[in-house]
Design a protein that fits this description.
This protein has helices at residues 13-23, 91-103, 219-233, 282-299, 310-326, 330-340, 343-350, 356-364, 368-382, 408-415; strands spanning 3-9, 32-36, 46-51, 63-65, 67-71, 76-80, 85-90, 108-112, 115-119, 125-129, 132-141, 157-169, 178-183, 192-199, 204-213, 239-252, 264-266. With 416 residues, the chain is an alpha/beta fold. It is globular and about 65 Å long.
Length: 416
């Protein structure tokens, strides 16, 4: 049985990012096995993100924007990102870039196969792939299977699902220096629905229909929404569809444990690295990969990574409740948030890096009743205590919540 220092199960964003950062660190001499079920030879997705610092993948940024555009029925906003920039990396460029770097390292092995099982152990963990068994000192599992997440009445389970067309027009339509983060000019139907537009030139852009809901749509429903947006909102009569992409991201406050064995760690979506209320993960994955490397180098194991902020998890839970039961209310809320706050404050809040004062300043610009209503609904629906909205019996696991003290100001300061 062949032994490796590291086995990475899954060759998506998380697995490849961790492998790439490993070979770019003092751990470059470790033996690494990367197992993925696909060949990753197609442009199957794009990763978009905002950042105020270079990522390890700056050389393959496909396009970058200095402005964000938002729109609803009442107005449009163009926001200068200042020290930030909004970037996109194409899947095929990412795969080729990382594969080439890994293939240049003699101590890295890549194989195509389906991981059937991961067996933990006190000294090593074993990965079963077909008829082959591999073992390693540490195994990182990025293979997310929704069926392995047992649903609980304590948590919410929405889906962020989308379908996008990359289109080309015969006239100038798009502003290539501004990415449309949210365009709410579409019927909400009691849900949170918006369009997302990444313009690569004045005549070519990725136009994506995005929805937070319980279930995905049919191909015809996505296509109809996209067609209506392009023709009625963008007012483009003639266009060519160059490419398509479609996907679904779990939007849930269900906790995802990081350490799933003595020798096994979950990363990526399986490790809860997707921000549940935005669907963004790429920059969070890069930070997590760096934290894992630091833990290995400093402590000799990968598990000493920062724990998730309980106040942001609480905020995510309330926001998911709002999306689930009052989704149509989010259109004016987002418009007010972006109109009344500096963009840096908003992005730090979404990155979970805002100070308590900044977060309170942001929350103060939003209509409070919507969130109080959602928080009460969350408490009633999921039997999760949140003072001072409702005084509930003591929780058997109080360490999960950061709600000590009874005053609203005390709770709010810790929440935000």
């Amino acid at each position: 049985m062949q032994h490796y220092d590291i086995i990475i199960a899954g060759g998506g964003a998380a697995g490849l990012s961790l492998a790439y950062q490993m070979i770019s660190s003092p751990l470059r001499d470790c033996s690494i096995l990367l197992i993925d079920s696909g060949t990753k030879n197609q442009n199957d997705r794009t990763w978009a993100f905002w950042t105020d610092a270079p990522t390890p993948f700056e050389p393959i940024v496909y396009h970058s924007w200095d402005y964000l555009h938002l729109a609803d029925d009442a107005r449009e906003q163009h926001l200068d990102l200042k020290d930030y920039r909004y970037q996109v990396i194409r899947g095929i460029d990412f795969y080729r870039f990382v594969h080439a770097a890994l293939d240049a390292c003699p101590n890295v092995t890549r194989i195509q196969g389906c991981v059937a099982q991961i067996e933990d152990g006190s000294e090593v963990a074993r990965v079963i792939c077909g008829e082959q068994i591999y073992q390693a000192t540490w195994v990182f599992d990025s293979i997310f299977r929704p069926t392995q997440v047992p649903e609980s009445e304590r948590y919410q389970y929405l889906q962020l699902h989308f379908k996008g067309w990359e289109i080309e027009t015969n006239q100038d339509v798009f502003r290539p220096d501004a990415a449309t983060l949210m365009d709410f000019r579409t019927p909400q139907e009691g849900e949170t629905r918006f369009f997302y537009v990444l313009p690569f030139s004045t005549r070519r852009a990725l136009v994506e229909f995005t929805v937070f809901s319980d279930a995905r749509f049919s191909h015809e429903e996505y296509a109809q929404a996209l067609q209506e947006y392009v023709t009625e909102v963008l007012q483009v009569a003639e266009y060519q569809i160059l490419d398509e992409e479609q996907g679904v991201i779990p939007a849930t406050d269900h906790p995802f444990p990081r350490q799933i064995g003595q020798r096994v760690m979950a990363i990526g979506t399986k490790g809860g690295r997707v921000k549940p209320t935005t669907g963004y993960a790429f920059v969070r994955i890069q930070r997590d990969s760096a934290a894992i490397l630091s833990s290995l180098l400093t402590h000799g194991h990968p598990f000493a990574v920062p724990s998730d902020s309980q106040r942001y998890r609480l905020l995510d839970a309330v926001m998911l409740e709002l999306m689930d039961h009052y989704g149509q209310e989010l259109k004016p809320i987002f418009a007010k948030m972006f109109a009344r706050n500096p963009i840096e404050r908003i992005l730090r809040f979404l990155d979970e890096e805002g100070s308590p004062v900044e977060n309170l300043q942001l929350i103060a610009t939003l209509p409070p009743w919507n969130f109080i209503q959602a928080a009460v609904q969350w408490q009633l629906s999921h039997n999760t205590p949140i003072r001072p909205f409702i005084q509930a019996p003591p929780d058997p696991h109080p360490e999960q919540y950061d709600t000590e003290g009874d005053s609203w100001l005390g709770v709010a300061a810790r929440m935000f």
